[in-house]
Amino acid sequence: MNTTTASTGLQSLSISQRIIAGSLAILLGLTLLVGTGFAGDFRLHNGAHDTRHAMGFPCH
User: What is the pLDDT of residues 3-56, one digit of tens each?
Assistant: First the structure.
């Protein structure tokens, strides 16, 4: 019986790589939040309106 586990191809990330990935994720999230918060198009603005107010993000 073969008891070896299948390799997923994923490697463990170092601390610096985790910090970089986390920082990029936060930057992307803030960009999307601010981008929809101050969007000129009413459809983009209204699409996230209630969520922004629930989180305390002022949009107008």
Answer: 555 555 557 889 999 999 999 999 998 888 777 767 777 777 676 777 777 777
Query: At which residue do the structure tokens 């918060």 appear?
Result: 37
Q: How far apart are CA 46 and CA 60, in angstroms?
A: 11
Helix, strand and coil percent figures for the chain, each rounded to 5:
60, 0, 40
Sequence-ordered list of residues with C-beta below 8 angstroms from that of 37, at least 6 positions apart, any chain: 45, 48, 52, 57, 58, 59
> Could you say which DSSP state residue 9 is in?
S
Length of the chain measured in residues: 60
Q: Is the pTM of this model over 0.70?
A: no
